[in-house]
Write a structure and sequence with these properties.
Four copies of one chain form a homotetramer. The first copy, chain A, contains eleven helices and no strands. The first copy, chain A, folds into two domains: 70 residues, Homeodomain-like (Arc Repressor Mutant, subunit A, Orthogonal Bundle), CATH 1.10.10.60; 120 residues, no CATH class. By secondary structure, chain A is an all-alpha fold. At the A-B interface, helix 9, helix 10 and helix 11 of A face helix 9, helix 10 and helix 11 of B. Chain A binds a DNA duplex through helix 4 and helix 5.
Amino acid sequence: MDENIVVRLEKEKVVTATFRKLSPAKKDKIYKAALKLFGEDVFESVLLENIAKTAKVSKGSLIQYFGLKENLFLFLGEIVVSNYISYFDNYFLNENVVRTRDRIEQFVLSHKIYRKNNGDEFDFILKMLFENSNKLSGSFVSRIFDIQKEYLKKIIERGVQSNQLRRDIRIQSLASVFHSILFGLLRERFLDKTISQKIDFAQNLNQSLNIVFDGIK
Amino acid sequence: MDENIVVRLEKEKVVTATFRKLSPAKKDKIYKAALKLFGEDVFESVLLENIAKTAKVSKGSLIQYFGLKENLFLFLGEIVVSNYISYFDNYFLNENVVRTRDRIEQFVLSHKIYRKNNGDEFDFILKMLFENSNKLSGSFVSRIFDIQKEYLKKIIERGVQSNQLRRDIRIQSLASVFHSILFGLLRERFLDKTISQKIDFAQNLNQSLNIVFDGIK
Amino acid sequence: MDENIVVRLEKEKVVTATFRKLSPAKKDKIYKAALKLFGEDVFESVLLENIAKTAKVSKGSLIQYFGLKENLFLFLGEIVVSNYISYFDNYFLNENVVRTRDRIEQFVLSHKIYRKNNGDEFDFILKMLFENSNKLSGSFVSRIFDIQKEYLKKIIERGVQSNQLRRDIRIQSLASVFHSILFGLLRERFLDKTISQKIDFAQNLNQSLNIVFDGIK
Amino acid sequence: MDENIVVRLEKEKVVTATFRKLSPAKKDKIYKAALKLFGEDVFESVLLENIAKTAKVSKGSLIQYFGLKENLFLFLGEIVVSNYISYFDNYFLNENVVRTRDRIEQFVLSHKIYRKNNGDEFDFILKMLFENSNKLSGSFVSRIFDIQKEYLKKIIERGVQSNQLRRDIRIQSLASVFHSILFGLLRERFLDKTISQKIDFAQNLNQSLNIVFDGIK
DNA sequence: GATGAATGAGCATTCATTCAT
DNA sequence: GATGAATGAATGCTCATTCAT
């Protein structure tokens, strides 16, 4: 957990000094407990008492650390975003795919590995995307989306530079299109109960990318 | 309001006979009140008392009509879906655009008009898409999505028949791609607070369609 | 149903004139429906709506006939008591057992036949005896008990006259003792879940009577 | 209050750990308040709010201690039974009456003293015996009855051993008969509004015992 | 007279937050 | 600083009774 974020959140009155001074191990235990439970249920249905029990901390302490249930939730969001960035910054450092199309495909598919290693973070993000009221999750979702689009934009930019993509394309728009497709597949995969689910996620992705790269006229 | 739906819902114990027998005007008043409030806030935050007040009905009556708050909610969903279908079935009856690309564009843009005339329905759909837990809204969302994809599939099919689209395209996949784009734009438009919002919805749509129709290689 | 009772209850504002004027058949249908349901559950748990449904009458009518749920209940009690008296007055008219001991035994056992022919009345009496608050059932229970003791007293009196019983016995006390025993057996039979239930009711009765008739010293 | 019972009830989820950890004084205050009110009225008519007020505790705390109103009720029953046993076990330790007949008489009459010292327990038992639905009070009543019969059986057994009672008597049956008589007197004394009430309880008891001990033939 | 729709007082239960220890 | 007991506002649901048709 990035201590700088904790320091900033203390200034923003999201966490208290008491929390900041906790041992990293304890902070992490609280983070993990809250993450797990907020990833399993909607905000309203998650009880402080259960988080406390899971973190082996008292309910009173939780309130002392965050003041409000909502602040604990905000704190979570900040750490998840920060971890998400770390993870994919690192991913791109080690990625050396050449074709633009493949880079996008790999990026999207790499979320499967992210999920395997960071299951609770992944579940939390899904809950934020689809099940918590915009009032609570709005800014979190925007940030995750902006981050994802930023990665896509960088891939596209290099594609333009390397003449794999047409120069006249608007990068921002293309990033949005790719992002919508990625997001749509995600939703189908995890929420819809319709036929489409039976088709493989990777296959769906492949076809969608074909459509955009080849055009349909 | 389609009385056949009310009859069906009575069989499914979602509404009571007492509700079914209400005058259409009263049923509509209740529908409108609930629609407005459930479109403004998350399920848990909507109070029966306020719906009652808005509909100028007693809380007791509401319970007498639906038994459970959740049933009132389910009832709403059914009517909204039914109205959505009526609206767009009618839209396509009167539509006579020729180019496939333009047909999709018009269909998406027509949601603006739908919104203008059916603001509360529109807001309710948005709440369902983004803010209520999947447990509550899951089936509603699936149905709305299936309906939208069905319309897109029909447009695509005619596009293939009239040789405007390549014959080797998978219709289902293409419909999904278009739907993801449409859905992404919707989200950006109504929920994100980022820069992208400043750009015009229609322009965004136009560019997205260009990308898919032209290909980007 | 004894119309005189209905007339008296009207004067006591337990039933309305509207009810009195109902056809005997309808009055009886209401009586039977209420009897059945009040015999199945505690006063508070019996819903007017269900009585109405069972009697094929509207809830509004029920209120119109009795004003208060409690009055319907009082009405029931009156009729049950009246029927109970008729039944056992008639029983004693046709009874010609000689020995006092046997007369008591037969009287108690005859309740089995009463139960077979008047199951709902019997269940109602049990509910009154054991499960409804004294506030509601108190006077009913007293009356039933007085009636039963009266029958016992008459049996005892004849026993004394025919020199089957000691002359120095206090009839009232003896009647109470017999009644307590009868009542205790009833309770064991219908409410307790203990071992005693396995033993036969008739056997239990037989032994209890032996004890009292033989003395135990 | 027996702490072992509280510990057992915690395992059976009737009381919570929070309640168990309360100071004995506080537990007792709650017990006494609930006892008083449940002894005055039927289960449904007793309000948590009033118990809370009487115990000088918040309604929320009550729920925190017992989870359900019904559990508070069950808890009461357990303690009352346990106290009843303690009281009469102690009574028999200090009792040294010789004649069987007198022993029974004294045992029954000792309930008057029990009542004087434990008025609320006594009232609660009466409410359980006569006024709460069998669903709620059934097991409580069975247990109290079994306890009472057990005491009677022990008296009878010693009576047989000391040749005060005939050897051929069935102890179980005789205990039941005595119990019925005791119970009948109790009922007359506290619930009936009839003449019999005017006669003294002790006199009634005396006569009833005479009848059984002397036989009536 | 009959109906059944309308009403609203009443109550148990939930749970974040406060606060005493 | 840590704990967890105490609190009470908030809300869905029940159902006898009222009342308009």
